[in-house]
Amino acid sequence: MTTRIKGMKPSRRQFLGGALAAGGAAAGAGAAKAAGDPAITELQPWMQYLGDPVDAAPYGMPSEYESDVVRRTVSWLTADATSSINFTPLHELDGIITPNGVCFERHHAGAAHIDPAEHRLMINGLVDTPLVFTMEDILRFPRENHVYFLECAANTGMEWRGAQLNGCQFTHGMIHNVMYTGVPLRLILEQAGVQTNGKWIMPEGADASAMTRSVPIEKALDDCLVAFKMNGEMLRPEQGYPARLVVPGWEGNMWVKWIRRIEVGDKPWHHREETSKYTDLMPDGTARRFTWEMDVKSVITNPSPQAPIRHEKGPTVLSGVAWSGRGTVGEVHVTTDGGINWHKARIDGPSLDRSMHRFYYEFDWDGSPLLLQSRAIDSQGFVQPTKDELRKVRGTNSIYHNNGIQTWAVNADGEAENVEIS
Ligand code: MTE
Ligand code: CO
């Protein structure tokens, strides 16, 4: 920033000089190129004609120059596209909020399209009064707003045995972070009256997979929401319109979309999604189950394989995201030399409980190859492990709950690749 002396307007020359002093080599290079740049000397088309009238797009869309900012799938990961997954373009985003249109999707039987007027939420099982709510009824409860990340337990699952997918969108993009508006589940359950032997709930989805999971009653009464809005507008059909369960900090599979029923029971149901799936096969052949909390994790989003360094050596912005299912992220450390030297990254923007955090590390790139890693530490003191440390405890047969440290190798051309060094 150019500092202004009170009452004095800086001249153009002062501006450029100021930018040079503050920005160093990169800003200097930019300023030199400005001489004779047709982008400055020529009248551009968008200055010669009137622009779009208001209402040209009653629902606004991103600029046509941002058409690369999209969810992407990896076709060979699943046998068909209705029980499948796509990934959030983390390398294109900044700040902490995921725009609704690029929130990754994970469907077990496709995205249901539900008429809210025909949607019902039933509470049954071990309750004093079984109840059925319409969406209108749900909207008459007191609401809360919270920003939470949702991470699929399978995020980074392909990377257990070694570096696989080339891009943070594919390795880490089964996560989104939005502001939910919803009703505390506690208020809805209290209306039905949970009986003393009611220890678990089983939320059920209205999609063709009728997704079900067992959730302990303590969690249900603590901070779960029946959410109907994300980032201010109604949930997208892909995210469970008209209502989904929000289970803060816990694995995405439990966040049942298109929620139609909540049964209260005295023990877990041991359904498919908590036995054959979403359990962790340990080295001794036993399976760990009910690993609900998502561990502290981070990834460098820029530079990364889909977002190489495209400028000359000099000032470089490294950025990434970090999160923990156990609280906030206290610190993120980054290394550019594969772990020989670690630097404290700058966390910028809101640091919210069980929400994504944004970090930056600005450095002078000397044009030599880099080995980039980030390591997050959460508010409970948990430290993100290396993949070797994880495998020492968990073996090599796991898929879910991989929060290991990611490495990107950047070459002298600025191109980045997924590698494993620790
Ligand atoms: N709920 C229903 N009803 N059906 C589903 O297929 N998928 C689950 C969960 N809730 C699923 C569901 C899984 S595995 C995840 S990771 C999240 O929803 C994905 O949420 P998203 O599509 O909003 O990203
Ligand atoms: Co999932």
Number of strands: 23
| End-to-end Cα distance | 40 Å
Based on helices, strands and strand pairing, what is the structural class? alpha+beta
Q: What is the residue-mean pLDDT, rounded to a whole number? A: 93
Q: Report low-confidence residues grouped into runs of 5 or more.
A: 1-29
Strand order of the largest sheet: 4-3-12-7-8
- Rg measurement, Å: 24 Å
Determine the strand fraction and express it as a percent band: 25-35%
* Associated small molecules: ligand MTE, cobalt (II) ion
* Overall 3D shape: globular
Q: Please give the share of residues in helix.
A: 10-25%
Biggest sheet, in brief? 5 strands, mixed
In short:
The protein has 422 residues and is of the alpha+beta class.
Q: What's the helix and strand layout?
A:
Blueprint: H1 12-23, H2 25-33, H3 38-41, H4 45-48, E1 84-85, E2 106-107, E3 120-125, E4 131-134, H5 135-138, E5 144-151, H6 168-172, E6 175-184, H7 185-192, E7 200-205, E8 215-216, H8 217-222, E9 225-230, E10 233-234, E11 244-246, E12 259-265, E13 280-281, E14 287-288, E15 297-302, E16 314-323, E17 329-335, E18 343-344, E19 346-348, E20 357-365, E21 370-378, H9 387-394, E22 407-410, E23 416-419
Parallel strand pairs: 3-12
Antiparallel strand pairs: 1-2, 3-4, 5-6, 6-9, 7-8, 7-12, 9-10, 9-11, 13-14, 15-16, 16-20, 17-18, 17-21, 19-20, 21-22, 22-23
Helix pairs in contact: 1-2
Bound molecules: ligand MTE and cobalt (II) ion.
Ligand MTE is lined by residues 103-108, 150, 152, 176, 205, 207, 209, 211, 238-239, 252-253, 255-258.
